[in-house]
Amino acid sequence: MTIQHATLRQLQIFAAAARTLSFARVAEQFGLTPGAVSFQIRQVEGHCGFPLFERVGRGVVLTQAGHDLQEHAAVILKALDDADRRMQALKDVTGGNVTIGLVSTAKFIAPHMVSRFQAERPGVSIHLRDGNRREVNAMVAKGEVDLAIMGRPLDDAEVLAEPFARHPSVIICAPTHPLAGATGLRLPDLAGSDFITREEGAGTRALMDGFFQAGGLTPRVVMTSSSNETIKQAVMAGIGVALLSRHTIGLELALGLLRELNVEGLPLMRSWYIAHRRSLPLLPVHAQLRRYLLERGQGIIDSIHAHHRALVAIPVDGDVAVR
Q1: Which domain holds residue 293?
Q2: In 3D, which of 168, 165, 130, 152 has the Cα closest to residue 203?
Q3: What are the residue ranges of helices labelled H in 49-191?
Q4: Does residue 213 sit within a domain?
Q5: Which residues of the chain have pLDDT under 50?
Q6: Is there a single domain that holds both residue 24 and residue 141?
Q7: What is the pLDDT of residue 89?
Q8: Does residue 317 belong to any structural domain of this protein?
């Protein structure tokens, strides 16, 4: 017998066991007993003629044959999933599930877009996965997400992306920073400033590096973080200045917690993109969400910033009231 005689169910159970290395978790996932999972794994081992797992202490690890079969099983199961999607795409389905990949910066705008979309289509369930630009690009290319909201994707023939909104980035500082309120700043004026930056692989970091290299300035980096929120808090604490998307700091700017530096050449204007895997057919709900962002994404972002500005009320008795 050969592995060709293994059933789809057996391959699914093996793939889950190879991924989790826990027969108990696989049993729970498939509604089986751990003994039944072990039996199915032995059946697969009988088909291929090699042990696929070996015990180490109280756990299991994959053998070399197990690793090899895991790679092929992933390809087979992914192909079947793609075939199922293509069949589902022939149906006019208005509900369903959408998995969206988000670059970290998009977390500040995507929930507002999703909220409005779901208000019109309450039957749609949304699952969000975030990461930096490199990670989200990989999610799209591998078909791990249905759609992604990101900056310009990396060059990848598998990824198809279309711009749907403007995306400005600016340099921010604390209100107490010596340069806060200064006008007509040029890049050399920032030579003595400490910078807080995103990690390597983030789109914002690549943008900052390109901007400073073009201006012939090497910034003095005192802190890096994978979190835009952490960077904002660090800037407010006076640790340094940072280049961030204006879409991540609208509320803090409106409330005066952060200041935008008036630097020549800023803001750096990019675009937001909606991306998906070129070879993966979009189900109706995925196509609807993509079209929704292309048509209404910019308007939603504009309304977010208008709301932030409206939070600051007219001064009352010398104090600023926040609605």
Answers
A1: 96-165+271-308
A2: 152
A3: 64-89, 110-120, 133-141
A4: yes
A5: 314, 316-318, 320-323
A6: no
A7: 56
A8: no
